[in-house]
Amino acid sequence: MTAPMHRHRPGTPDTQQGMRRRNLSRVLHTVAADGPVSRASVAQRIGLTRAAVSTLVDELIRAGLLEELGRQRPGGVGRPGSALAVSERGPAGFGAEVGVDHLAVCAMDLRGEVRARAERRVGNRGRAPRVVLRELADLVKRVTVEAETLGLAPVGLAVAVPGRVVRDTGTVASAPNLGWQDTDVAALLPVDVPLSVDNEANFGALAELWRAAECPADFLHVSAEIGIGAALVVEGGLLRGTRGFAGELGHVPVRPEGPECPCGGRGCLEQYAGEEAVLRASGIGPGPDRVTLLAERAEAGDRDTRRALRGAGTALGIALTGAVHLLDPRAVVLGGALSRLAPWLLPPLERELTRRTARPADGVVVSRIGPDGPLLGAAQSVVRAVLDDPMSVAHDTAAP
Amino acid sequence: MTAPMHRHRPGTPDTQQGMRRRNLSRVLHTVAADGPVSRASVAQRIGLTRAAVSTLVDELIRAGLLEELGRQRPGGVGRPGSALAVSERGPAGFGAEVGVDHLAVCAMDLRGEVRARAERRVGNRGRAPRVVLRELADLVKRVTVEAETLGLAPVGLAVAVPGRVVRDTGTVASAPNLGWQDTDVAALLPVDVPLSVDNEANFGALAELWRAAECPADFLHVSAEIGIGAALVVEGGLLRGTRGFAGELGHVPVRPEGPECPCGGRGCLEQYAGEEAVLRASGIGPGPDRVTLLAERAEAGDRDTRRALRGAGTALGIALTGAVHLLDPRAVVLGGALSRLAPWLLPPLERELTRRTARPADGVVVSRIGPDGPLLGAAQSVVRAVLDDPMSVAHDTAAP
To answer: By the 8 A CB rule, do B167 and A218 touch?
Structure first.
């Protein structure tokens, strides 16, 4: 469901039916990206005839996915000037996030706007997955009720988790900061809509790709909450890896004989730039919202905090040197908690990249989406699946 | 020209014409992969009707790209049982390799067989690119003459170089072991066929993908001659990076404060596992074919050589730990000179991957193609371009 790459596999038969489905998708994507627009304008943008586009548009209107905003040229013959927009009623993409210290759910319409939302602060570390997911299902129900009053119905739910998710399954292989292992989220989450599960860094990167203005189609998105993850976007799609485990930046060796890491390795990036490591080096003990405290201390010029962040930035720069040499991304985007600490992390990070001649083409930038990225990316992955194959939901929403 | 990913970009109009071209390609690919085969069998494999396939096949026969091997069921009505094969005459893909100590050119028919070949041992380090490329053009001429006697004509030439090639251009940004910088190969190579240029590791990976039995569609190919490069194959296509510079495994930091590297960094993999570093640590001075000497000494149990290779394997394991965590490839394939040294490199390399929990799904394997990979991959990239879009060469070869 997430990040289809529009790839034509050799061997897939190319039929009239397949062509029609792809063209319906192109029309819907164009209106979603540029709407409100006229039929003529859609035809021009996607390179089909006006007549072909009209047939496709009529089908999408019947399915409840497009709507006409009324004539823009009063008195015109037929409806040549009526503007098309993606429907704000009907199918909605639901996104959810299981964080180490919170749960969140939102409903997004086909235009990409969040229309309903619920959140709970709760410490999930070490709790039984079944209990956590039952609470998440309660939030899903609340958001569903709210969405229904707006004429929206969930067509799918995508769940972001801080862990490794086995590709094309609903199973979390491991989420060390939650204490989950081989957890079948799809089986344990009592909801009755199609479900997908993915790593929070992946959904965060997709949110950046789909929602941030002028986001390049190729970038490495670095995400940190408790752990450090990354996601690589290539030509507008995620590089997931064979098992779905790509992007484990937190376990790239920075100093191969450095401190032991719970992963079994030594000197992994997380041992220098993970939240726990930075807090410990700053002398900050247990308590709520410690990243805010960290930022405040750094702002105030606290020496230990500044030194800890310098060390974290240097380690990030060394690990990213390897990543940039291997992947040659257009940009590196710092997201999640890292974006709040960017003023102190960026200078040492950039220094390492520069002296090791590993600066990406467009440099290192800070996320424009912020900590909501994973939740928004999850919901939007469901919305994109509808735009990619409009007829998949047509029978749910079309009037007979 | 190299490694088209069969990707349908949103916004590309989907037309009858485009569909026909893709289906012609599917038929030709199927016969190339599985031929000789009957029309019925092609139809079954690609999921089109027998009638549709017959029309496509007739067009490919008229274009000289397919041929009929004669009826297999004598007395049948029409030609239902005649077996189809890709033509062994007509278009040929030319591949060339500029090595640090050799030049090579080959001609490959559409069946993927090398039909003509020329090679020269010559030290290219520090020579003017114009001189090197003029010599290469002479080899191309020799091979062209030989190919023509076999009824083959070059439709394109792909050149493998040991350096960074700017994506979608014929320009080598830098090839340190040749001493090339910003070298416009396309402008300096006096040949009159369409030209493409790419990194030797990329072509080596493609050769592995296209020619090795049971090669997975996702793997990291590590290649070493003088430098160390890598290429990542994802879903059957190369990950090139934004500028075309992806795969620079040789400059992944292994020990961030290690020895200085000419790239500007410190402790890069090449400082531990590059040919120069290993030869120096083994106490082997200047001379011809030093990798053979290295293998002989290791075989004989020479302590310095064994220790040097152990160090190289360990460094490779550390750098690959980062690469596997970032990319999650199905396998790591050791190619080029590394494949000859695999007996001594593999054990320390695997030990690092295992203790750092970075073993790829299918482990580390040794290339089945060997040092010819880049040359074969280059030629086959031209052949694949014909299979991907048969009509691109139809006007060159079709009888009127």
So the answer is: no
Contact A255 B255 (CB under 8 A): yes
The pair phi, psi for residue B83, each rounded to 5°, is -90, 140
Which token pair is A121? 């602060």
Taking only Cα atoms into account, the Rg of chain B, rounded to an integer number of angstroms, comes to 23
Q: What is the pLDDT of residues B160-213, one digit of tens each?
A: 999 999 999 999 999 988 999 999 999 999 999 999 999 999 999 999 999 998
A355 and A229 together in one domain? yes
B9 within domain boundaries: no
Flag whether A390 is in a domain: yes
**Inter-residue contact A245 to A164 (CB < 8 Å):** yes
CATH number at residue B47: 1.10.10.10
Number of domains chain A is built from:
3
Report the 10 Å Cβ neighbour count for A137. Answer: 18
What range defines the domain where residue A143 resides?
A: 91-205+374-397
**Is residue B82 assigned to a domain?**
yes
Q: Confirm if B273 and B228 have CB atoms less than 8 A apart.
A: yes
ipTM surpassing 0.90: no
CB of B270 within 8 Å of a chain A CB? The answer is: no
CA distance A180 to A174: 6
**Residue B349 at interface with chain A, using a CB cutoff of 8 Å:** no
Residues B176 and B123 both lie in one domain: yes
A248 shares a domain with A232: yes
* Rg value, chain A, Cα: 23
Contact: A47, B12; criterion CB under 8 Å = yes
User: Of B26, B232, B355, which is closest to A10 when you measure between CB atoms?
Assistant: B26
> Which of the listed residues B86, B119, B139 is the one where a domain comes to its end?
B86
